[in-house]
Amino acid sequence: MIPFGDQLRCFVAAALSAAGIKRHFARGFVMRSGFQFAIASLVLSVVTLSGACSPRLSEPVTVEELEIVSEDVADVSPQLQELRKRRVEELAEACTILQRQYESGVIPLEQLLSAQAQLAEAEVEAAETPQARVAVLEKLLALSKEHVQVVQGRVDSGNTSTVDLLLARAALTSIEIKLLQAKEELESP
Asked: Taking the CB of the first residue and of the last residue of the chain, which one, N or C, has fewer CB atoms within 10 A?
């Protein structure tokens, strides 16, 4: 059996990979969109809370270290869209299993929230219309609010620092920004 810390490290590596984050030598991180930065922030704060994150991964990344490459959904090949849909299905199945494990007390809430955030990010990528993107971002916003409440509870009980709460709130704000941008895009002619 693999120790939980090692499982969580593998999970985090997969989450960061799913969020489109790649390591580059001195440049820091390369991400495909600001939304993925928000997802990565959410995942990193969850992992930092659980104590399974290395100090380097939890260091903040500056805007100068990010390279943003936009991708329009309309320009996506059918094969790529099919792969994205398959990823959503796989993550949805994983979330269902993790939900049962959480309800049985086998895994912590943070692990379930991380998986749900990955699912929401995959759903945003797979969204074929701006309306679908807005709906998924609203779902992710609700998850992020729940995450902030969990972190607030940990701060109140003395199990984590205020910095973790600030990071969770910043991730929430990033998602709010993306949602507002998606709604504005929806309203523009």
From this structure: C
